[in-house]
Amino acid sequence: MLKTLLKTDPREVDVPATIDRSTFLSTLPATSTDRSAALTIVGVSSLLFAAAVPFAGTPLQPVPAFVASYQSALAVSDIVTAVLLLSQFAVLRTRALLWLATGYLFTAAAALVHALTFPGLFAPAGLFGAGRQTTVWLYMIWHAGFPLCVMAYAWLKEKDGGPRIRGAASSAIHASVLGVIAAMAVFGWIVTAQHDLLPVLLRDGHYTPTMIGVVSFVWSLSFAALVSLWFRRPHTVIDVWLMVVMCAWLFDIALSAIVNVARFDLGFYAGRLYGLAAATFVLAVLLIENVRLQAHTVGLVGKLRQQSASERDYYGKRLALYGAVVESSNDAIITKSLDGIITGWNKAAEHLFGYPAAEAVGKPIDIIVPPDLKGEVRSILNRVASNESIAQHETIRIRKDGRPLDVVLNISPLRTDEGEIIGASKIAHDITEEKQAREKLRRETEERQRIFETSQDLILVTDGYGNFVQVSPSVQNILGYSPEDMVGHIATEFIHPDDLDKARNEMRAARRGAVKRSFEARYYHYDGHEVTLNWMGTWSEPVKRHFFIGRDLTDKQAAEAQFRQVQKMDSIGQLTGGVAHDFNNVLTVITGTIGILSDAVADRPELAAITKLIDDAAERGAQLTKHLLAFARKQPLQPREIDVNALALEAAKLLHPTLGEQITIMPQLTEDAWPTLVDPGQLSTAILNLALNARDAMPDGGTLVLETRNVFLDDGYASMNPDVTAGNYVMIAVSDTGSGIPAELIDRVFDPFFTTKEVGKGTGLGLSMVFGFVKQSGGHIKIYSEEGHGTSVKIYLPRSTGVHETEFEALQNAPVTGGDEKILIVEDDTLVRQYVVTQVKSLGYTALEAANGAEALNIIDSDETIDLLFTDIIMPGNMNGRQLADEAARRRPDLKTLFTSGYTENAIVHHGRLDSGVLLLAKPYRKSELAKMLRIALAS
């Protein structure tokens, strides 16, 4: 079978360059159809054989012509079969196939010799001096030789046809033919001229014991050939039909040499018919296969013709496509001969130079060349003629209207099919605007360099690792270094150690995409003193560089400090001055009258001594007022930027002896807490007041948690709390495990003189003093309490100005991501519930709401599409949030849960309220925190 592989391109038809062995029957695997047809023929033959056996000895009319016809047909069939097999051998060159073809040649030769020596056919006793035993022995030799060749074929064949001959195929074929002729000549001579030497096989029309042995041996050879074919797998098509041949061969021997009793009986004729049928099976299959191959060949020729036509069409289209590409190109494409005559001119050339193709083609290229560049054109053509290509050559050309053009040329030799250079192909690209842009960029670069060199601010350029690449000359005036002192050094060598983390965080934030970062960092001057610089910085990803502009804040800070000092002095001076004025008025009356009194009692020593004491006391009072005014000028109280973590740790140390051993103090401080601008003394007093309140709420002992956290209060939270401005805050939380505050008293705890303590155990000013301090500091305070569980007071102090976005803040300010799931919100506070529902819906979710656990369970039972339960932990009624979550999980095992609480997260965890792994969103929270926790909970 000839295989033709058609590629995706319809123009291509693969004709295998090597021989496809599956083309030939000797190597083509047998199909189920082949096996079915063969089994059918064997089955029919077996039935006919079984029917003929009982009548094999029935004598029939002798017909010598039948023998002649049978032998002739058999010889012709075997010769044709041998020729077809030898033609396959000439291609495949396998030894197995040569043996099989030799077997068919041997059978044809034996049939011819047998016919010539058959009695009564060409001569009464047969030709060549044949005797009575000649044809019997020839029959045995004939029927033994073919099975031997088949067995040789079976044992030599492999999956790919078996071993191959090394010499020429024609030599092997000649050797096979000559070998068969020689073998038959020898056998013919033995059974004719020497027939008297051979044992007698037939005597008086009956088989001799020798005949029985010879026939049995011959039949056994045929059976052995059949068995060999069966076990030599895999079977090819020719293997299957050879097995059919050997079955017919066995039936032939059985009928004509075993069960019959004489010539011309039924067995004689039936056996010869089986033999003739055996000779035609393989021949018929080979002829059918040849017809099929011829049909494939015709089809292949047709496809090759089709391919040829397709290729002609393809190359025609390709040529047209190339023409279209040239015409549609945005660059001018020009061809010219070696003497400079234009031979090709596309539409882009028309547009670029202003000449139509009809005007340009046939004219010299000089029509677009400035007069002073004509020598350049001649030089280019000479280089092209020398097989040189010219790339990216910038030059000037002239339009038809006389306007000069800046162009870049790419020129290549133009060749004939034989490779001879006959001209040049030129692509011209207009770079007039590009050149103008380059000039503009050059001017801008020069201007920026001048700004860099003359700037009074410090300009620094660093690589991604913080190494200085460029430093402006202004560094000499600001830091005392020359630019050469700093270039090549890392920035950390010059930055104050306390500001290193801040500077690194700013550089990281810039690389994450933040631009125009503004922050303060101190650098060391050449003489060792600190210089505070306000930096504007950005990162350029294309060049992998940081760019910083630093402004010296030394003068500004000194002026601000002086201004604050003046303001403080003025305020305190006004206060103390007013007091001193009134006090001095009193002292004036005292000192004035004491003088009169002293004169009046001058003669009374005991009264004079008393007036002297009064006069000295008045003088001391006057000195006191002077000292007070002096103190007010020199020691003004003012807030400063502090580290809340350090202050909280210091407060924790002071609280240990104050609170007693029965109360455990647990600091939970966030890393990299932002600094805040606040009076540290007042903040310490506020923490002390809150801790004392917590102690009073835990008379039997408990846990006090001091927590710090960086937070962002968003617009949604600010809308719920009118006194809050959205922004960054440092949260300081004091949480206890005490008795808590009743819900009806929460709104009054900050009122002055309000207290829940017994008479004599509190003034009611502690929380109000904290409240006033926080508000005066621009902050926010919130209290959360659950009666019987504890209280958490959260102070939010604004983040100090001049400190900018850290990695933590960048993470918290990540874009808000929502979803389309359905969320059940359970919150007993109406305002908070409305706020949460609004935020959840704004994120794209479907929001359901409930005020308590009972309402929530009713909704869960009625709606199976709820994806998440978002519930407060402690709620009024018989069911808190944890109990609600457990019951919801029992009813809906796949329902996910997110808790929220007014306590800080650490306080809740250390109170033991939640198991490990339970998700909690602490109040208050911003929208981004809500969005993040919702996604985490839904994905858990």
UniProtKB/TrEMBL annotation:
Superkingdom of the source species: Bacteria
Top enzyme class: transferase
PAS domain boundaries: 318-388, 444-514
Transmembrane portions of the chain: 37-57, 63-85, 97-116, 136-156, 168-191, 211-231, 240-262
GO molecular function, one term: ATP binding
UniProt keyword Metal-binding, yes or no: no
Residue numbers carrying 4-aspartylphosphate: 872
Stored Pfam families: HATPase_c, HisKA, MASE4, PAS, PAS_3, Response_reg
Protein EC: 2.7.13.3
NCBIfam families to which the protein is assigned, alphabetical: sensory_box
Family matches, as InterPro entries: CheY-like_superfamily (IPR011006), HATPase_C_sf (IPR036890), HATPase_dom (IPR003594), His_kinase_dom (IPR005467), HisK_dim/P_dom (IPR003661), HisK_dim/P_sf (IPR036097), MASE4 (IPR033424), PAC (IPR001610)
Protein name: histidine kinase
Annotated ranges, domain Histidine kinase: 578-801
Annotated source species: Bradyrhizobium forestalis
GO process terms (BP): regulation of DNA-templated transcription
Record key words, sorted: ATP-binding, Kinase, Membrane, Nucleotide-binding, Phosphoprotein, Transferase, Transmembrane, Transmembrane helix, Two-component regulatory system
The UniProt record lists the keyword Cell cycle: no
PAC domain residues: 391-443
